[in-house]
Automatic annotation (TrEMBL):
One Pfam family in the UniProt entry: MreD
Single GO BP term: regulation of cell shape
Keyword Transmembrane helix attributed: yes
Membrane association type: Multi-pass membrane protein
Keyword annotations: Cell membrane, Cell shape, Membrane, Transmembrane, Transmembrane helix
Transmembrane segments: 21-41, 68-86, 149-167
Record's subcellular location: Cell membrane
Protein name: Rod shape-determining protein MreD
Family: Belongs to the MreD family.
A GO cellular-component term linked to this record: plasma membrane
NCBIfam families in UniProt: shape_MreD (TIGR03426)
Length: 176
């Protein structure tokens, strides 16, 4: 009998040493701050550059939902708005929606491999592009640049590597 026909006995399918469910708070919040710093780079404002903060928020919402709060996503959104000069609250709304929709799918996504997760996360990775297009249309800028939709596709491509990187946390070696 397969694992799926037995029913979901636990939320986490594998409990290996590299399971992100065992990550410390320092690692979770440290990677969020580091990914926000990566989004501060000048290259990150290009439409063909994935948002590492969105990737990290999605990853930790799937694997550590008890540590990712809406106020945290909102705070990072306000900081991103201040950096990019966007309408204040645009990225905050986007990041909160990304966290919300990822939470809706988190139990199912925790059972999938990172490649299968990347395919399932396509709608979530396109939330920022869709909201940017709606915002540009509402403020009279037409439909905005269509190249922002490439960011969602690049997020799908980067997802397996980003999962691998965030799951390999630094563990101190006290015995050696």
């Amino acid at each position: 009998m397969s694992e799926f026909s037995k029913g979901f006995k636990s939320r986490r399918p594998n409990k290996s040493f590299y399971d992100p469910a065992f990550a410390s708070g320092w690692w979770v919040y440290g990677t969020l701050i580091l990914s926000w710093c990566l989004d501060l780079l000048p290259l990150s404002h290009l439409p063909y550059f994935p948002s590492f903060l969105v990737l990290t928020l999605v990853f930790w919402t799937i694997h550590q939902p008890q540590r990712i709060y809406y106020w945290l996503a909102f705070l990072f959104g306000l900081l991103t708005d201040a950096d990019t000069g966007a309408v204040f609250g645009q990225h905050a709304l986007t990041y909160c929606m990304v966290v919300f929709f990822t939470e809706l799918m988190s139990v199912r996504l925790s059972w999938l491999s990172s490649i299968a997760q990347s395919i399932s996360l396509i709608p979530i990775f396109y939330i920022p592009a869709i909201l940017l297009t709606i915002e540009a249309f509402c403020f009279g800028n037409g439909f905005g640049p269509w190249s922002v939709f490439a960011q969602g596709l690049l997020s799908v491509v980067f997802w397996p590597a980003w999962c691998w990187l965030l799951a390999r946390r630094w563990v101190p070696n006290y015995g050696a």
